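Hi both,

Apologies for the delay on this - the queue was longer than expected. I finally got the 2-acetamido-2-deoxy-beta-D-glucopyranose-bound model through. Below you'll find the protein sequence and the ligand SMILES exactly as submitted, and right after that the structure tokens for the full complex including the ligand.
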Amino acid sequence: MLSAVFATLVAATAIAVHAQSGVANCDREYTVQENDFCDKISAAQNVSTFQLAEVNKAVIDPLCDNLHEGEVICLGVEGQDCTTVHVIAEGEFCFEIAGNAGISLDTLLANNPNVNSDCSNIGVGEVLCTANVTIPYTPSTAA
Ligand SMILES: *[C@@H]1O[C@H](CO)[C@@H](O)[C@H](O)[C@H]1NC(C)=O
Ligand SMILES: *[C@@H]1O[C@H](CO)[C@@H](O)[C@H](O)[C@H]1NC(C)=O
């Protein structure tokens, strides 16, 4: 039992050491380019606005104005990586985005915890996870 715990710790440490982003169990890493901003990266790399912010909350501030060219960030953590996304266009609402993706509104809202229940706080260019399964995001411990 104890050796199994130890083996897990060693494995986790090894992954963390090799991950340039510093995020444990990172599934996908990305090197920030000149003139990148969060939603641009999200749209180009198939990662939701929520997931990009959540995974990198230790290094990217809430306004996403502290990205550095050459910085390596993590796009998704193993087992919690939504790669099916939709970039919000002018005039779109959650109901139709969900419908077009063939998913329920509940699934859309569950996978995008940054969106409020009446979907009134989304904006053009933001990226939503439109996966047809619920991504088991670890509940945030941040206040
Ligand atoms: C993003 O998803 C689209 C649609 O599935 C795909 O064509 C594209 O290659 C993906 N891009 C990346 C960087 O994964
Ligand atoms: C969910 O999406 C995946 C990949 O996009 C697809 O292969 C699968 O058939 C879908 N499942 C359902 C129940 O729609």
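Main takeaway for now: The helical segments are 2-18, 38-45, 49-55, 94-101, 105-111.

I'll put the files on the shared drive as well.

H.
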